[in-house]
Design brief:
Elements: E1 2-7, E2 18-23, E3 31-41, H1 43-50, E4 66-74, E5 86-89, H2 102-105, E6 120-124, E7 128-130, H3 137-140, H4 143-157, E8 165-169, H5 173-184, E9 188-193, H6 196-204, E10 209-212, H7 219-226, E11 232-237, H8 241-250, E12 251-259, H9 271-275, E13 279-282, H10 288-301, E14 307-312, H11 316-325, E15 331-335
Parallel strand pairs: 8-9, 8-11, 9-10, 11-12, 12-13, 14-15
Antiparallel strand pairs: 1-2, 3-4, 3-6, 3-15, 4-5, 5-7
Helix pairs in contact: 4-5, 7-8
């Protein structure tokens, strides 16, 4: 029996992706065979496809860190799952709990190891989580990277609570999940975008204040003014060095910044970080233990991830082109055909 998977086999970008057919793998003693029902894509997935060689990607490589599906077979020593369980893969295959390290970083799906854009995958039982019961496969597939990154930044690092104010940079997948999680915790959200349409959608999702950064380049001053001159409690910084200096100005003394984005360049003056006693933490997704706690919160609140558009597995290239166009709000998903 064979399976199909999309593969990076050359440096020619999206249109160079190859749909390959390979032998169906069998799970080992500690492994689980998953029939993948849906993927979601992240900017990291797109950038890996567009520019694989500087990242040291070995060909062929199956892209995408995020996917969800059904357990269809288990190894003799598997105790965490049963056939029929609905599961999602973990971004890092070897990060169960505790602090990140080099071995964990070398287990990132869709980069260091094969990802989820395949009809079937075999994963170690320690690298999977059960998904919230109320979510579709497409919704569940959005959780491993963007959702967990937002959760790590706000809850694990930011320790947000009701009444806090959170600043979000842009309306990408991480920011929209951060908006939902902040609202879930009773926090007030200030969110930026260059699109009034996206800002209106953010208000519908519960944003307290919105700022069009194209019309208001001094958005950090506006954020401070909105907080009576104090500054925000936490920033989910997805822009990178190009926006970080303004995020530092916008956050209160003793506040925190979750540093996620690598989208823009620039240099940072460390002096205001020191003077304001800021906590600035690099966020690289999160552990399985964080994932499981996040899923409990999502299920308890019946939270629904925001899916911008769904594409078919056979039309996966179009999904990446859609992301490249940057018109989306929320997540872009790729689904297996009905009846598969």
């Amino acid at each position: 029996m064979t399976l199909r998977s999309w593969q990076i086999t050359n440096p020619r970008g999206i249109d160079g992706l190859t749909l390959a057919e390979t032998e169906m793998p069998a799970p080992g003693a500690e492994e689980v065979l998953v029939r993948v029902r849906a993927n979601s894509i992240n900017y990291r997935d797109l950038s890996t496809i567009l520019d694989p060689e500087p990242r040291g990607i070995a060909y062929p490589r199956v892209p995408n860190s995020d996917g969800a599906g059904d357990v269809v077979a288990i190894g003799d020593s598997v105790s965490r799952f049963r056939v029929g369980d609905r599961v999602a893969g973990c971004f890092f295959q070897k990060w169960g709990d505790g602090a990140i390290n080099a071995e964990i970083m070398a287990s990132a799906m869709g980069g260091a190891v094969d990802g989820m854009l395949s009809e079937y995958v075999v994963l170690n039982q320690a690298a999977l989580v059960k998904v919230p019961v109320h979510l579709s496969y497409e919704q569940a597939a959005t959780l491993p990277c963007a959702a967990l990154t937002a959760w790590h930044s706000l809850v694990h690092v930011g320790n947000i609570s009701a009444g806090d104010t959170v600043l979000l940079i842009g309306t990408g997948g991480v920011s929209i999940f951060a908006l939902q999680f902040a609202v879930l915790h009773g926090a007030r959200v200030i969110i930026t975008s260059s699109s009034d349409e996206k800002l209106e959608r953010a208000r519908q999702l519960g944003a307290w204040q919105t700022i069009n950064y194209r019309d208001n380049p001094g958005w950090d001053d506006i954020a401070v003014a909105l907080t009576n001159g104090n500054g925000v409690d936490h920033v989910v910084e997805t822009g990178g060095a190009g926006t970080l200096s303004r995020s530092i100005e916008a956050v209160r003394i003793g506040g925190s910044i979750g540093l996620i984005g690598v989208l823009t360049g620039g240099e940072i003056n460390p002096t205001p970080v020191m003077r304001k006693s800021l906590r600035m933490q690099g966020i690289y997704v999160g552990s399985r233990a964080m994932f499981e706690r996040m899923n409990m919160a999502i299920e308890s609140a019946s939270l629904l991830p925001v899916v911008d558009r769904d594409f078919s597995f056979d039309d996966a290239k179009a999904a990446y082109h859609h992301m490249q166009g940057a018109s989306h709000l929320g997540k872009i998903t790729i689904s297996m055909p009905s009846g598969y």
